[in-house]
Amino acid sequence: MSKRTLRQGGVVIASLALTLTACGGSSKSDNGASGSSGGGSSAGASGGAAAGKTVQGKSGPLDCSVFSSFGDIKGKTISVYTTIVAPEDKPQIDSYKPFEDCTGAKVNYEGNKDMESQLLVRIKGGNAPDIAYIPQPGLLQQAVKAAGSKADPAPQTVIDNVTKYFGKDWAGYGSVDGKLYAAPLGANVKSFVWYSPKMFKDHNYQVPTTWDQLMQLTAQIAKDDKNAKPWCAGFESGGATGWPGTDWVEELMLRTAGPETYDKWVKHEIPFNDPSVVKALDTAGAILKNPAYVNGGYGGVKTIATTAFQDGGQPILDGTCYMHQQASFYAANWPKGTKIGPDGDIFAFYEPSMDASSKPVEGAGEFVASFRNAPEVEAFRTYLSSPFWANEKAIISTGWVSANKGANIANFKNPIDALSVKTLQDPATVFRFDGSDAMPAAVGTGSFWKGMVNWITGASTKSVLDSIEASWPKS
Amino acid sequence: MSTFDKFEQMVIAVVAFAVVFAVIMLLADRIRGRSADRSVAMVFLVPTVVLLAVGLVYPAIRTLLDSFRNAEGTKFIGIDNYQTVFSDHDLLIVLLNTVLWVVFVPFFATAIGLLYALVIDKSRVEAIAKALVFLPMAISFVGASIIWKFVYTYKGAGSQIGLLNEILVKLGLPAQQFLLNWPSNTFWLIVVMIWIQAGFAMTVLSAAIKAIPQDIIEAARLDGVNAVGMFRFVTLPSIRPAVIVVLTTIAIGTLKVFDIVRTMTGGQFDTSVIANEFYNQSFNIGDEGLGATLAVILFVLVIPVVIYNVRQLRKADAR
User: Fold this and answer.
1) How far is CA A159 from CA A26, A321, A351, in A?
2) Do β-strands A131-134 and A359-370 pair in parallel, antiparallel, or remain unpaired?
3) Where do the ABC transmembrane type-1 domain residues begin and end (chain B) (predicted)?
4) Containing domain of residue B121, as a range?
């Protein structure tokens, strides 16, 4: 395709497929959409900026004019600080290319696994990044408060995208004091149970659709196969050891107590040792603390504490366990060559609810917070919140999911990613964010993690919940 | 900031440093007259004192003040944080673990280093033997921790992938979860530190042993002293200053131990120590007050060891 036809076609397709600031509600984007004459006059003068130009991305052409309302941002740089490191950082960086081509601005990407603990240090030290991908709503609250006037609320273009393409729940998790500060970036779905479709077929097991069926299946497997256990699990994760345990509790809190009680629990409107939490933990314990049900391939119940979460589900492949509860991103942990799919070596099913009438889904994701108010930063935030970007990113990634409703499921090649997006976009889904990520850090990354480790190594449900309740920050 | 900007800043910083240095030298050179010595000393001292004040004294005072404040550092709460550290069950275990580390690591690292130095002294393979024990010193704490984490790895069923458990299973014993049960898990971590530090002890002590005057040794031999007596009455008294330096140096390093705990267990399973808990409280949990308190406690604990160390060094110099 020649450049010329591309450009001509671009304008037409752009108005259909593209969607960057499409909701027309804001005068800013209207201005941009008017094309080559729009935007700052300096943009035209410099010749390289956005107005009237189209750039080809993997998911289609990108109408650059949507950025022209931000003025000439050519040559400007935007610094991004994130926990997303190799190998997942490559599709991230590659997905910025259409934006960079379009505007002439440059994105400086800095990935650091310790970002969560370093971000506040950098903000307080006056060295905040332009943009940070924050994976926890609790941390977002802290960061916005710590940054004070430097924290930049979402511009109208981003608000429009979030209103149009994300659910209310997602917008809420990106807001501080009712004001949207951060649009969602990636997402993941936690409510999955990984299993081997082949093993299930060999034994004529059906994928359970209610919790009772799941427990019946568990008992059945324990009876049928003396050389294996129905479940395997691993809580070890370096300094974050214990978090897979919090996921178990949260899933069961959602299922046994319902989303409303779950919200109260996260906000500490009911105590942490409330009877509903006891019930959730004991329901998890019926599987995790039963030596007949765990820990496939690793040994007794206590091995869960020291088994790395990455290794947790691996025994499914050698047949020493049948099921493993873990999020969609666990797809990245299967060895190269493992076929993931409904008829492959490995796949996942929705972790059943108590009855089939409700569909609570627990998940998590990152949010794009900004600490510098500048046209190039706002343009980039607008780009990241658009369906164009979500589709662009989907095409070049595996193991990546978006909650953007403008994301086309067909663009998610990996079956588990597609299943996750489908789950997120399902109207029956009641979505809740990972509870421990939204709790105060003293609990969410402190006593809750530690409590789960103590619980799995033998401490009673009551003593664990009592000590977590005691650790909740007073004030 | 682009790479170029960073490079530019670096160049500016280097040039600025050179200019400041040149000015100081020039000033020192210009000073004449009766009290010249004192003035010259002042010119050199003042920048150092200023930098120390900014980089060391000020943060120390800030930390001390923070330790009397609440989690966000916004409210004065008196000695609450200190009370928490000395009453909270989990933090008491942290303190106890630190005591275990400081008692066992310096003692065993020095003892093993000394024994090794004595055994290989003047042997034919001394150079190679020394290099072997010294090698772990060259490995970073994090690297060493990862190596040992593999050594301790546990797998309940099937074949073991951890060296130690494989040995246990070969001997017909059950495999162990070394890093899970307190307090033994702390001792398995301590082993890593001893493994690293024994090389340092061996090197310094070996040099001290070689420095013992030959005539003393010969005199003792003529008196018919046996090997044990030689060690007790000749070697040990002669190398006593070196032993103390080694012990205190390792003790200070051990008080600050962080990397090993963080890499191997992340402080879970009751293995945390003060330095790790300080980091955990300050940066993971976000309790700046409690973090500062732990830092102050660490500081207070190190002071006597440092003073003792300095005095011993002075004594050795005076001789």
Assistant:
1) 10, 46, 33
2) antiparallel
3) 95-309
4) 89-317
Note whether B125 and B228 are same-domain residues. Answer: yes
| pLDDT per position as a tens digit, A308-340 | 888 899 999 989 999 999 999 898 889 988 999
Task: Supply the pLDDT for residue B190.
Answer: 95
Instruction: List Cβ neighbours of B186 (8 Å cut-off, separation of 6 or more).
Output: B97, B100, B101, B270, B271
Q: Smallest CA–CA separation between B74 and chain A, in Å?
A: 12
Same domain for B287 and B184: yes
Q: Which of A142, A299, A300 sits opposite B286 (nearest CB)?
A: A142
B161 lies in the same domain as B30? no
Residue whose C-alpha is closest to residue B179's, from A295, A235, A228, A286: A235
Residues B180, B37 within the same domain: no
Distance from CA of B52 to the nearest CA of A (A): 20
pLDDT bucket at B172, cuts 50 / 70 / 90: confident
Q: Give the pLDDT confidence of B108-151 residue by residue, as tens digits.
A: 999 999 999 999 888 888 889 888 888 888 899 999 999 999 99
- Give yes or no for a contact between B230 and B77, defined as CB atoms under 8 angstroms apart: no
DSSP category for residue A238: T
Residue A295 burial (CB < 10 Å; 0-12/13-18/19+)?
Answer: buried
Selecting from B157, B179, B287 the residue whose C-beta is nearest the C-beta of A442 gives: B287
Q: Examine the domain organization and report whether B214 and B252 are in the same domain.
A: yes
The total number of structural domains that make up chain B = 2
Does B65 share its domain with B94?
A: no
